[in-house]
Amino acid sequence: MSDFEGVYPAIVTPMTRAGDLNEDAFRVVYEGNVRAGAHGFWIAGGTGESVYLTEAENKRIAEIAADQNDGRVKNIMHVGAATTAQAARQAEHAAKVGVEAICAVPPFFYGVEDEAIVEYYRVVGNAADLPLFAYNLPHATGVDIVPDLMAKIQDGVPQLRGLKHSSTEFHNVSSYVEMGLDCFIGSSLLMAPALAIGAVGCIDGPLCIVPELWVDIWNAHRDGDGGAALAAQRRAIEFVTLSRSIPFPAGFKALAGARFGIDCGDPRPPFSPATEEVKALLIAKAKAEDWFGC
Questions:
Q1: 16, 55, 140, 286: which is deepest, by most CB within 10 A?
Q2: Is the confidence at residue 1, as pLDDT, over 70?
Q3: What pTM, to 2 d.p., does this model score?
């Protein structure tokens, strides 16, 4: 059994109206998720707008998350960056402030060879010497960490513990499991089937709004009740559909703010904000369907 498993919300990064990091709101959303049963967090990942934050902001989020957690759950801090040096600095800092693990997208924008990707992860892993999770997000990075490449990373990076698999190649989950890796499915739509073939849990943005929906899937799976897990998954799919009915990540921020009673602000440009009218309509639909009463 892995010590990294279950429901790991990819938490939003709340902003003030001036566009700065809103530390108080981050703590409120974090605490609300802990109380709702989350087993851990994916901090400053795609939903957390990591690549649109400064290095100082990413480091500060690691500090806040570790402080708010105080050892209760598992924080997996995203440290991936466009350069190996920045990723390594963020990894070293994350370890110093007390997160439980780190994660990183592979080098992005420029296509680099497999050996360069392995070296990137080796340097990042050594900088923190914490459990390391690769972040397989090919639609954003242009790199699909297929099993052959993952095997190279596994051979070259002793800190590698597993991955968040956000590729459309769902069948590769089984391959990663066979490699002995802790594989989190990166789609909130697929937690139940992923668990059935060996995934250890789910990491995704909708989880940070109503984590209870995915805790229900997890509990049913742990109880060996596949039918209940699928029923809970179908219910979760209904909420995901609503949460994605306005552009990412504005919808997630609006809904998380409404759920936990705090203003999470707008996404960081170049993400587009949603109008107050659009956000109000989204929140009204969520309340009418009693999603916040989970």
A1: 286
A2: no
A3: 0.97
